[in-house]
Each structure stands twice: as structure tokens, then as C-alpha cells.
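Onboarding guide, step 5: your first structure request.
Type a short instruction followed by the sequence, for example:

Predict the 3D structure of this protein.
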Amino acid sequence: MTDTVTHRQRLDIAAEAPSAFRALLLLNKTAHEGIDPKLAELVKIRASQVNGCGFCLDMHATDARKLGESERRIIALPAWREVSFYTDRECAALALTEAITLVSETHVPDEVWQEAEKHFDATELATLVMLIGTINLWNRIGVSTRRQPPAEDE
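The system replies with C-alpha cells like these:
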């Protein structure tokens, strides 16, 4: 039996759970304060790649481009460990992003956490954890409801 994906949104969370949606929007607005905006977008893109959220991938790649992020670095994100396009700080954030996104598999290894601590102070690290948690919630909403990105001509 083949599992086919319909490209139709299943549910409009904003319309059906407006209070919770507004709360998530507020969290989203504050979850990256103090983190470089380009780095925040790289984190959101990487988590969205791991989770397979097309809506979030489209949105955050678009937002990263608007901030001046290069197409080359956006495209190479799945292979960030294999290329020299990213700083040590970015690599630490991306490793933490993957570990938290895959928490049931990784349990966020000490070495990943310790590397992040080398590049982020406690406040930045707390913010980064909140950012990663928030994008993961958005990904779960997007994937489960099959939220669709806008048409290319929009």
C-alpha cells in the first residue's frame, strides 16, 4: 500500500484554535531575540529540513534570502558538516538544532551541548533552545495540517 500525500491543507489552525495560535505567534516573535537574524533563519531552515516541513522551508529560505543569506549556503545546509561555508558558531547552532529536533533519538548529547556553550553565552543558549523548540512546533503544525506555501506567483 502506498502512502500518498495530498497537497491540500487539512486544517486551518489559526481559525480553529485562535487563542493558542496568537500565543504561538507571540512566542515566535520573542524566541529569537538576541540571536543574529541570519543564524536564526539557518536554524529554522535546518529544523524544517529535518522535519520535512515544506511550508516552513519555503518561508524561512525566502526570509533568509531577504536578509542577504546566499543561495549557496541555503542549499548546502543539509550537508553543513561537509562544507566550509559555515562558521564554528553556526555549526554549533546547527548541531544543537539537529540534536533537539531529533531529541527522541539523540537526547541532546553532552558533546553537542558543550560545543554550543563554547559559542553562546547562557542567555543566547536559552534563546537558541527556545528558537529551536518553537520552529519544531511550527513544523509539527505545518506537517500535520499539510500547510501549503503560497503559489509562486503570489
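Each response can be followed by summary notes, for example: The chain is about 65% helix and 0% strand.
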